[in-house]
Amino acid sequence: MSAGESPRVLVANRGEIAVRVIRAAHALGWEAVAVHSDADAEQLWVRLADEAVHIGPSPATKSYLDVDAVVQAALDSGCGYVHPGYGFLSERPEFARRVTDAGLVFVGPSAEVISSMGDKALARETAERAGVPVVPGSGVLDDVAQAREAAEELGFPVLVKAAAGGGGRGIRIVHSADELDDAVSTARAEASSAFGDGSVYLEKAIIDARHIEVQVLADDHGSVVHLFERDCSVQRRRQKLLEEAPAPGLDEGVREEMTAAAVRLTAEVGYRGAGTVEFLVTGDRCYFIEMNTRIQVEHPITEMITGVDLVAEQLRIAAGEPMSLAQEDIDVLGVALEMRINAEDPEQDFFPSPGDISRFDLPNGPGVRIDSGFVAGGRIPPFYDSLLAKVIVHGRDRPQALARARQALDELVVEGVVTTSSLHRSLIDDPDVQRGGVTTTWYEERADRP
Ligand code: ADP
Ligand code: ADP
Ligand code: MG
User: Fold this and answer.
1) Cys-Cys with 376: which of 124, 173, 360, 396 at CB 3.0–4.6 Å?
2) Please, what are the averages of pLDDT over each run of 10 residues along the chain (450 residues)?
């Protein structure tokens, strides 16, 4: 970057993560340019940015997913960097390539690394080569006969997973051989229409597992560090509801094995930036499931326990600077929880509840952080995901963090849209959550209780 001129980053996203990236940019003295669709013309991130570019109509395919429009916005507004956030174009190798070809810096790993990890079947092979324990499974299946053979070898239940899947979609469980043929062909058809790639593979279903993931950072100067783990086992339909760092009661040996494996994999692939290596953990065994080559929704809990600004590190690394910390500088202090408050009605099978936010009273006080893309008087448009706010709390220990979570949820008042806040209140009060260490099927089994 030339002296006297601030770097400028295009924030190729919307909602809370757009706000988060703008804040990190400003904290570093960078300028930030927002993008928005028709529906988002007056949203918070548009106001907070130094400049905002209208990139198209409301449907995401015509705006936030339009590669041409986003790259043109970066060029027109004089940006040198593009931050993709999460979701949307963040894990599309062709987007990273287009950004780079336009002479701009993509805030994230190379297009090659994104593709090698974006194909989950290929990522498993890479992980194995790096000596990372993976869930027993198959390669991409050519036909149903191959699926049968692989399933017999693995033993039921197995999961059919889309190689290009993400966001909890493209996974189905198969309990017995007679369900397999149908499951594989349906999964293929669905994957091809949802992700534009019908490749599927099998994994042994790990029963009674916790979802535990390791945050990593890597720079262009040869440093790779981990920032410990997050427990994201409270899930509904394989989507995270409540996250905690560090993972409560985790065996110290498993923690060491996972963090070392995550660092090995990150180094092996020549990674750059922030990434997350996801594992399933049962007893003292851990198994790699995938790597997400982007900032994660739940990154703030890692920031709360380590004091590291992960998004600022992403920008620094993209600018070719060494990251600001070494492994020995990273310590864990206390416990953090994140509750994803969605504009959805938990009483109506989580049906989306978009609309005008007429009242939005935010909690605050010691150890409370809110990341939201919205303000009172604003609106949740029906076109995108329904994340309204992330309520993040930090405490010296679990009891304090849980007490702060309860208090924060009690202070949160939202009117105009229905939210999942009441669900979170009941999760925090649940004895199993208070004890810590629930498994990925816990929530759905709980919901089924009479
Ligand atoms: P995180 O662990 O960061 O929450 P998720 O897998 O829940 O990651 O995805 C984060 C966001 O990205 C969500 O909004 C999710 O819907 C979206 N997303 C992730 N992968 C895909 C994909 N392959 N296709 C569509 N949306 C995706
Ligand atoms: P996505 O790309 O959609 O995030 P993941 O592979 O990360 O998909 O899996 C999402 C969730 O599905 C996991 O957190 C876990 O709850 C469940 N899952 C995935 N693989 C397995 C497995 N082999 N056994 C049991 N559960 C699994
Ligand atoms: Mg995942």
Assistant:
1) 360
2) 78 98 98 98 98 98 98 98 98 98 98 96 96 96 93 97 92 95 93 94 97 98 98 97 98 98 98 98 96 98 98 98 96 98 97 98 98 97 98 98 98 98 97 97 81
CA 274-200-174 angle, to 5 degrees, is 110
Asked if omega into 246 is within 30° of 0 (cis), the reply is yes
Rounded distance, CA 306 to CA 184, Å?
43
**Strand-pair category, 81-83 with 8-11:** parallel
N-terminal to C-terminal alpha carbon distance within the chain:
61
Residue with structure tokens 């757009």? 18
Task: Kindly identify the ligand whose nearest atom is closest to the C-alpha of 169.
Answer: 2
Ligand 1 atom closest to Cα of 294? Answer: 3
SS3 content of the chain, % helix, strand, coil (to 5): 35, 30, 35
Residue 194 Cα: closest atom of ligand 1: 24
Q: Could you confirm whether domain 136-204 is CATH 3.50.50.60? A: no
Q: Which pLDDT score, from 0 to 100, does residue 240 have?
A: 97
Nearest atom in ligand 1 to the alpha carbon of residue 167 is 6
Cβ neighbors of 283 (< 8 A, separation 6 or more) are none
Q: According to the model, what pLDDT value does residue 1 have?
A: 47
Active site residues: 294
Residues with CB under 5 A from ligand 3 (ion): 278
Q: Domain 210-447 sits in which CATH superfamily?
A: ATP-grasp fold, B domain (3.30.470.20)
* Bond from prior residue into 136 cis (ω within 30 degrees of 0): no
Q: Which ligand sits nearest to residue 205's alpha carbon?
A: 2
Determine the CATH number of domain 8-107. 3.40.50.20
Domain boundaries, the chain: 8-107, 136-204, 210-447
Between the CA of 90 and the centroid of ligand 1 the distance, in Å, is: 9
Give the span between the Cα atoms of 322 and 318, in whole angstroms: 9
Find the residues whose C-beta lies inside 6 A of ligand 2. 135, 159, 165-169, 171, 203, 205-206, 209, 211, 235, 238, 278, 280, 289-290, 440
pLDDT of residue 5: 86
DSSP code at position 62: G
**Closest-approaching ligand to the CA atom of 300:** 1
